[in-house]
Amino acid sequence: MSSIFVDRSKLSPNYVPETLPHRDRQLNMLFSLYEDSLKHRDEVYLRPTQLIGGVGSGKTCTAIRFGEELELKAAEEGIDLEHVYINCKLEGSKKILLYRNLLGKVSREIPTRSLSTSEMLHELMRYLIDNDKFLLITLDEIGYLLKKTDEPIIYDFTRLNEIFPSEPCRVIGTIFISRDLSFHQYLDASELSSLGRGYIEFERYNSEQIRDILVLRVDEAFRRGAVDEEIIEFISDVVSKPPINGDVRVALDILLYSGLYAEREGYSSIRPEHVRMVLGETHPFITSEDILGISENGKLILLALTRALEANRTAYVSLREIREFYHLVCEEENVHPVEEVEEEIQDLIDRGIVVMKSLTQFGITGVTAKDLDRFLTGLREKIYYGISGF
To answer: In whole angstroms, what is the distance from residue 99 CA to residue 94 CA?
Structure first.
């Protein structure tokens, strides 16, 4: 039994709390956009919406919480409405994979094998009509997907109801989540027109707001007395300032790993020195959420990269060195290595975790040779947690 934690999964990036401090305005704006769809079903039309804000600003939690609450309100009106959330980094790195996962979440009855993407969307809309079902779709990290394809993803997801134009609208909206508006550069004029220019902004959290969030998470994740007010204030103050700039994901990581340090040393509460140890190893550009989103082989390759960097004591290593350490890591983990190491490394680059200095030099984003030692320890721990889960 842990002397520190009650349920550390409450610090996981996959956990969506029931209460979202300081995001009432964004929730209310979403309800104002979509709630009328429940009252006037014959007048429903597909509304695209963009949620825009920096990392750790609550976009994903807000979208998921809104979807759950809208489903409940719909059920009260006797409407079968489902919110489907898809993270493009996890479930939609390719167009066909995205569409297949969408259909699989709506119903396992919908066939996907041997169907083209356009046929999949046709089957999706036919299923919704035949079963008198409504849908709200959220596509998170849309920019990541658009970097990888030149196909008209946005056009497809803003024109779904044109597949059967004579039938009542069945998809009430598509919510696109992105860190900024730079994904617009990948869209042509027709897609930009379909998407619209309006968006809901998520501002960075300030110190007081981060404190309010941490107080609620501490109550759920830790034993009473394990985290006092001084620790919460300390973390909130640090996270609200550069280079972290209000990323609440980093604040939750600091809480988690500070608790782990305290537990290992036999303490029943987190001390300031435990937080300082974590801060010395914290990488503000790579959080537990980033690690959890990587494929299993991607995590092993990233771990191999950290090993190679540590062995060479340099900020960059070659692809050959990464391969060597990757095979060693796979042997330790009793996993069969894959041959497509370059493809996995490119994915890590696309995610902003790995940086490529040249065709033969790879490193960790934002880490210099001077900072290498203190960052690698914390990063390796995150990778191991990403492999084993919370």
So the answer is: 9
SS3 109: coil
CA 120 to chain centre: 25
Residues 7-39 as b or e (16 or more Cβ within 10 Å = b): ebebbbbebbeeebbbbeebbebbeebbeebbe
Say if residues 4 and 269 touch (Cβ distance below 8 Å): yes
Structure pTM?
A: 0.86
Question: Of 379, 65, 1, 21, whose CA–CA distance to 218 is shortest?
Answer: 21
Specify whether the CB–CB gap between 269 and 218 falls below 8 A.
no
User: Rounded to whole angstroms, how far apart are CA atoms 211 and 21?
Assistant: 10
What pLDDT, on the 0 to 100 scale, is given for residue 390? 58
Which single residue is written with the structure tokens 């709506």?
A: 106
Closest among 293, 298, 199, 288 to 247, alpha carbons compared = 288
Which residue, among 199, 115, 101, 117, has the nearest Cα to 160 in the 3D structure?
A: 117
Q: Which of 62, 385, 57, 375 is nearest to 244 (CA)?
A: 57
Cα separation, 231 vs 224, whole angstroms: 14
Q: Which residues contact 331 (CB under 8 A, 6 or more apart)?
A: none
Low-confidence ranges of the chain (pLDDT < 70): 284, 368-377, 384-390
d(CA 352, CA 245): 17
- DSSP, res 6: S
